[in-house]
Every structure is written in C-alpha cells, then in structure tokens.
Amino acid sequence: MYVLGRGGTDPDGDGTEPDRDGTNTDRNAVSIPDRPPHTARIGSFLARDGSAGAAVGVDLDRPHAGVVFGKRGTGKSYTLGVLAEELADADGVVPVVVDPMGVFGGLEAAGDRVVDPAVRPASIPPSAWPDLLGLDPASGPGSLVWRVVADAVDAEGGAGSGTNDAAGGNLLSPSLAALREAVDAVDAPPETRRAAANHLRLAESWGVFDADAPPVASLATDGDPAVLDLAGVPDAAASAVVRAVARGLYDARIDGGLDRLPWLLVDEAHAFFGGVADPALRTLLTRGRAPGVSVVCATQRPAALPSVAVSQSDLLVSHRLTAARDVDRLAEAEATYLAGDLAARLPEGVGEALVVDDATETAHTVRIRERRTPHEGESPRASRLSDGESR
Ligand SMILES: Nc1ncnc2c1ncn2[C@@H]1O[C@H](COP(=O)(O)OP(=O)(O)OP(=O)(O)O)[C@@H](O)[C@H]1O
C-alpha cells in the first residue's frame, strides 16, 4: 500500500515507487500488509487505462492538515466519509465530523454516534460575542454584550475567556438566561439593554448553547466517534459550535485531557471561514499538529477558503474543479510537481481525485474506495420519487 503523508522514498515499503500510471506492482515484493497499522485505506491508484492499481492509504500515525476539493457532486462528502470510517476503525485516533448538511448519519453503521451539538456559552470568547450576535463591537449593545460575557466568565470561572480545565472542558459557564439578567442589571440606556437582551434571546433560540453541556473533549473521549449534526442550525450558531469544538479539542490536547489524536473533519468548510469559527480553524491549520490535532476541510468552493488552508495542508485531495479561481487556490500549494495545466490533470469521474502528497512531493490519480456505511449525500431525484422512494 502506498501511504500518503508518511514520507520516505518508498512510502509503501514494497521496494518500488509508484509508476506515474499508478500500476505500482513489484512482483518480487514479499507480503505487503493490506492495511499497515495506523493507516486509512482510502482507495487505489487509477491507471490511465481506468484499471485500479495499488492500494492507497493516508498516514494516521502523525497529525495532518488536509483539504478535499471538488465541484458539487464529485464526491467530496463521500471521500470525507471514507476517511471517517477509517478513523473510526483505527487505534489512537478519533474522528469528530462537522456535518452541516446532515449527510453523515450513515456513519452510525460504523459505530459513530450522531449528536445534537451543545456548547457552553463561555467557550466563545467575550470579544467574539458581538460578531456572533451580528452586533458591532463598538456599538452600545455590542460592547455591552462583550462586557457582560467577560464579567460573567470572570466571576464564574475566574480565569478569563473560554479557558479549559484539564479534561478539556470549559470552566463554569454562565447560561444565556444569566447573561440576559446581567444585561438588565447594568447601568446603561434602556434601548441599549433591550437590543443586547434581544440578541441574546435570539442566540438562545438557536438551541446550541447550554451552560451544562459536556466538555468538548468528551466528543473524542466518551464512547463512539461523534458526528455533529448541524443540519437546520442557523449559520451563526453552526459557526459557534465549530469554534468551540475546534478550540476545545486543541486546548484538551494541550492540557493533557485527551489521550487520542482527534481528527476534525469539516464538510462545507467554506461556510466556517471569515466568521466566528475562523480563528479556531486557522489555529488548527497552523498550530494544530504540534499538540496532535488534525483538521480536514472539504469544500466545493476552494476559492472561499483562505490561502493558509492550502499552504498549511500536507494532504490535498481534489476531485474535479472547473472554475478558474478554484483551480488557482489549489495551485497555491506551490508544489513544483503540480506545475502545468492543473485543471486538465484533475480526473473527470465521480469518486476520482488527484491526491497531492507533500511528504513525497508527488501527485497521483486515485479512485476513492466505496463506503462501507451508507452515504446520505445524494441529491433527491424526481425520477426516484415517482418510483415511490422517499429521497
Ligand atoms: N468514491 C465513490 N465511489 C462510489 N460512488 C461515489 C464515490 N464518490 C461519490 N460517489 C457517488 O457520487 C454521489 C455524490 O457524492 P457526494 O455527495 O460526496 O458529492 P459532493 O461532492 O459532496 O457534492 P455536494 O457538493 O453536493 O455535497 C454520491 O452520492 C455517490 O453516489
């Protein structure tokens, strides 16, 4: 098996490097384990004649940052699901899947649990609250919310914004109701208090904030791997969850509260950059590997991701892309082995991808394997509905 991200001149250990056409067969090779330890089997090389070559895996021994690109319907979510299945099976690692479209429920068949996300209000730093609520931090209501959250976190936890205890959980967190009461008690113009309280009430209605929510680390420690079902959750609330979870996993690894290496798999990742979740995702991309947190961002809009997402990724998987701006973002990998007409090198077929392996500075065409668990990302078809199916 050829293992992406593992490095060395002979990543599969069979005595040959893969041929450009992916027919990496060394007939003299002694037995090559089908799946070496700490490896995710994601597919096989795709030869020019369309036949399958050697198996291709992703290194799970060390932490990585990765991206999965592809225009709609080319197989991004499916590929992320394959990786999640492999992570759920492997020792020492655990996937946490951010599922904005509700398409990863099938992973329950791999033993994952689908959870309704709940995070503590204190897991969002006071300075981020105005933005989260759509308030200008310099405005009266914005600065009031900021101050009230900061005071409440100081009073209850005593250690500032969003800090974690050793188990990776936030220190005592105020409830949103308590924050509203605090807003009411402040000496400020009534219209300022009213606006601040109304925005906090709106955040309560999102249903993702819970002062007694389990610590974020429990997503990766308690029982089976977790799929965070964010389908139908408002964008701002989903961003708050991603911020809290990304930061919580990072802090838990730093504090020693997490003995497995978490992989945060983010589908529709473009939705989480440029907003409240942005700083936490950037932290994982740039510094996550040091404490052992991996992140993989999947999107049909690579151009909407910051450059850092590509420049920091040592694992790039790209299904078909056509828009020039999206191909340009991929080109920012600045890999000389990617030179030439990149768009033309991206395979056409669904489930086929160009994978770029930073560790060996090579790019290969791969066919992603079929899922073991059901994939729920299929678009509804009128023809199927008329055949009596429900989707
Ligand atoms: N590796 C694969 N093997 C077999 N079928 C696949 C593979 N990848 C994708 N498919 C098929 O293609 C369909 C679309 O894949 P997927 O839902 O992952 O697309 P997507 O790129 O995430 O699209 P969207 O942007 O709409 O979410 C899947 O429902 C599945 O039927």
Automatic annotation (TrEMBL):
One of its GO terms (molecular function) is 3'-5' DNA helicase activity. Residues 1-10 have a biased composition (Gly residues). Residues 62-331 form the AAA+ ATPase domain. Residues 1-37, 368-391 are annotated as: Disordered. SMART domains: AAA (SM00382). It catalyses: ATP + H2O = ADP + phosphate + H(+); Couples ATP hydrolysis with the unwinding of duplex DNA by translocating in the 3'-5' direction. It comes from the Archaea. Pfam families: DUF87 (PF01935). Belongs to the HerA family. This is AAA+ ATPase domain-containing protein. It comes from Halorubrum californiense DSM 19288.
